[in-house]
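Incident log, structure service

09:12 report received: a user says their structure output differs between two submissions of the same chain.
09:20 pulled the input from the user's history:
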Amino acid sequence: MKKAILFMIISTFAFSLMNAFVKYLNHFPTFEIVFFRSLGSFILCTCYIWAKGINILGNKRRLMLLRAVIGLTSMTLFFMSLKYLPVGTSVSLRYIAPIFASFFAVVLLKEKLKAVQWLLFIIAFSGVVVLKGVDDTIDTTGLLLVLSASVFTGLVYVIIRRIGNSDRPIVVVNYFMFLGTLVGGILSITHWNTPSGADWWLLSSLGFFGFFGQLFMTKAFQIARTNLVAPLKYIEVIFTMCIGVFWFGDLYTIWSLLGILMIVAALVTNVLVGKK
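09:34 re-ran on a clean worker, output below:
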């Protein structure tokens, strides 16, 4: 368990740095950021797959391609939201994706939820209401973008459930990163902003941090029980908020903190209840 905790801390810190760099690089077009984020991970994933002798095309190819399309949509919307919201707030709101995932699972997979889980989802959504309804510093455009990203992420979770164990996670991610590289590259051509100086290193690091964040998270889930490891994902919110305060000078009102606390507490409890 100690090793799993260490892996999750590394994973969440890697994702937090990636999110912070995306926020810092918001003077670049969104699809150019998507391109660099995807390219680095695509190269690393492909090298790993070839080194391990894994079938790069996988088995459930249509589902993996669908997952890539929806995942790319979610990632693009999330990156757009970082132009309008504090990075910690965006990450917190993105984490309500399990609510939408549960809704899609009920409708599409005919799964059932416990009554207490519905209550926890109401609490999490109430946190969103507190963020926007009481704290007038939250930008409406950014809020709509990140909520839309969460809806698509929730749908991604359901598709991954349908893929199941038919394909290795690294192959599923590789489809996603390949499509992100292709689409991001094409759509950024007309608005290309050539990086200079340190921006080259920051853009190139996006794929690196994204890949290793995913890798260490997967390792953590492999060596410890899911209901013990899954809540640790929300450490990313703490890391990202701290980075936002010290790097970008983000300010959080008492209402912002209350809303974020309601969201995170409800979703962590849902993980524990759902896996019990």
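09:41 both user submissions now match this output. Likely a transient worker issue. Closing.
09:42 reviewer note: Residues 198-223 form the longest helix (26 residues). The two ends are 18 Å apart (CA to CA).
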